[in-house]
Specification:
Elements (H helix, E strand, L loop, with lengths): L1 H12 L26 H6 L23 E7 L7 E7 L6 E5 L7 H10 L8 E5 L4 H6 L23 H15 L2 E10 L18 E4 L5 H12 L10 E4 L32 E8 L5 H19 L3
Parallel strand pairs: 3-4, 3-5, 5-8, 6-7
Antiparallel strand pairs: 1-2, 2-4, 6-8
Helix pairs in contact: 3-7, 6-7
The chain binds zinc ion.
Zinc ion binds next to loops.
Length: 310
């Protein structure tokens, strides 16, 4: 069956390759690693049983759940930035939730966890996963490229933008709207741990934080999530809740701040009705890649349980 074949490819894509000490903080460049060795899109194209549709197209909302099964769409199809959106329908009435990995290409814990989440099957509703959102950056093991823009500074996106990651932001929110997603979970890494540096030290250390943007569940989601995760991790791994309100600009036409921080994924709740954005950062310093992936998966599972998809 197509689903089994697709799973095989995604499992292969999850193989752990390079690790790096880069993250969401200050741009500390290093040499590219070997991560992303398997080209997931080529794998999908090479599978004769898969017929991914080219782009997200709006379909009328239906009152009955879609039949159980998976589909793969290609975002920014037929460009160098083409990347899969994996959609699992449970066949059971329920909410939709969306998970992003690989928004920044030098944060392998996020996209390797994304590869795993893309294999999960929801118990109810629909699970949408973009495991490798910025695939060209990921293949080069850099945060992003200036000429395509920083996806996490370009929401709500623009279908016709010269910046390809601004087009990607648009495609991601289009899918979130189409399926009426109520959670956008964005998995990142930071070079160091938030708790180990003063909050205003200017280091950009955000490791082990959960930041909630403006949305219907903003006030409660961080506490619910840490309540499920923290009992199962070490003292150093404890996740800390941050209020992302100042990074959110609810409303249809947010004015970009000087650093465009008001245009991160935390602003998505202002553009998709009913959606609460949650951004998770794992620290890279003295925390092995394998553990960062585990912690992302633990957190993602808990978040999806909270919204009722798992
Ligand atoms: Zn990041």
């Amino acid at each position: 069956m197509a689903q089994v074949t697709r799973r095989t490819f995604l499992a292969g894509a999850a193989s752990i390759a390079g690790a790096a000490m880069l993250g969401c903080g200050p741009d500390k460049r290093t040499s590219p690693g070997q991560a992303g060795a398997l080209d997931i899109e080529v794998a999908l194209h090479g599978d004769p049983t898969m017929q991914p549709t080219a782009t997200a197209t709006a379909t009328p909302a239906t009152p009955t759940p879609r039949a159980r099964g998976a589909e793969v769409r290609l975002l920014l199809a037929e460009t160098p930035h083409e990347t899969p959106l994996v959609i699992h329908h449970s066949g059971v009435q329920g909410p939709a939730a969306m998970v992003l990995g690989g928004v920044h290409g030098n944060e392998p814990g996020g996209w390797m966890a994304g590869d795993e989440v893309a294999k999960w099957e929801p118990a109810a509703g629909t699970l949408l996963v973009v495991p490798r959102a910025n695939v060209t950056a990921l293949n080069a093991f850099v945060r992003t490229f200036e000429e395509i823009g920083d996806l996490n500074r370009l929401y709500p996106g623009n279908r016709d933008s010269p910046l390809m990651m601004e087009r990607m932001a648009h495609a991601i929110l289009e899918a979130a709207r189409e399926f009426d997603a109520n959670l956008l979970l964005d998995m990142h890494e930071s070079w160091a741990f938030y708790a180990e540096y003063p909050p205003n030290s200017g280091t950009g250390a955000l490791g082990q934080t959960i930041t909630t943007g403006v949305g219907p569940r903003q006030a409660e989601f961080g506490q619910l999530l840490t309540g499920k995760v923290n009992p199962h991790v070490t003292q150093r791994e404890q996740m800390i809740v941050r209020d992302g309100t100042r990074f959110s600009r609810p409303g249809a036409t947010p004015a970009p701040s000087q650093a465009n921080r008001g245009r991160s994924s935390l602003s998505a709740g202002g553009h998709v009705a009913g959606l609460t954005p949650v951004l998770v950062e794992m620290g890279q310093t003295d925390q092995p890649l394998e553990r960062r992936i585990e912690l992302h998966l633990l957190t993602a599972r808990a978040a999806l349980e909270i919204v009722g998809v798992l």
